[in-house]
Design goal:
Number of strands: 9
Mean pLDDT: 93
Radius of gyration: 15 Å
Shape: globular
Low-confidence stretches: none
Helix content: 10-25%
Strand order of the largest sheet: 4-5-6-7-8-9
Order of helices and strands: EEEHEEEHEEE
Number of helices: 2
Strand content: 35-45%
């Protein structure tokens, strides 16, 4: 797998019949190890181990409906009240982060109203705080530590 611009973590990886899987600590099961999943697993561990977000507040591939289309968030972090706090959009390292990527996560946030957005391909990371009064996002150096 691709070396990412994130801390390294000890992952449980299995190779069964030449297919690699990685253990997801949120879903508590092994999932197919694709390049995008590699990024997602690093970001999950980053949020849990570095930023101290509880695993119990994290959802993976949470379904939502936008304009009668079913979409899924890559990672969704809730606050203690059960409302979305952070939306994370993961791309494979080979995928460039573009305006289209920001448009995608912004559409999700029209529905979810999270306070923070993260977009990452594992190499480049963009952290944003929503300013709902000005209807824009402000770029940050990092995402805040858990403190709800």
């Amino acid at each position: 797998m691709h070396l990412l611009n994130l801390p390294t973590y000890k992952f449980k990886i299995k190779n069964t019949k030449n297919k690699y899987t990685i253990f997801d600590i949120v879903r508590k099961k092994y999932v197919s190890l694709t390049p995008e999943e590699w990024v997602r697993q690093h970001l999950i561990h980053y949020l849990v181990e570095e930023k101290k977000y509880p695993v119990s507040l994290i959802a993976i591939e949470k379904q939502l409906t936008i304009n009668n289309l079913t979409k899924r968030t890559d990672i969704l972090v809730f606050n203690l009240e059960g409302t979305p706090e952070i939306i994370v959009e993961c791309k494979a390292p080979s995928i460039k982060i573009t305006q289209h990527t920001f448009d995608q996560i912004a559409r999700y946030n029209l529905k979810l109203n999270a306070n923070y957005l993260i977009v990452s391909n594992g190499l480049k990371h963009y952290y944003c705080k929503m300013d709902f009064l000005k209807k824009e996002y402000v770029f940050l150096d990092t995402i805040p530590n858990y403190n709800f």
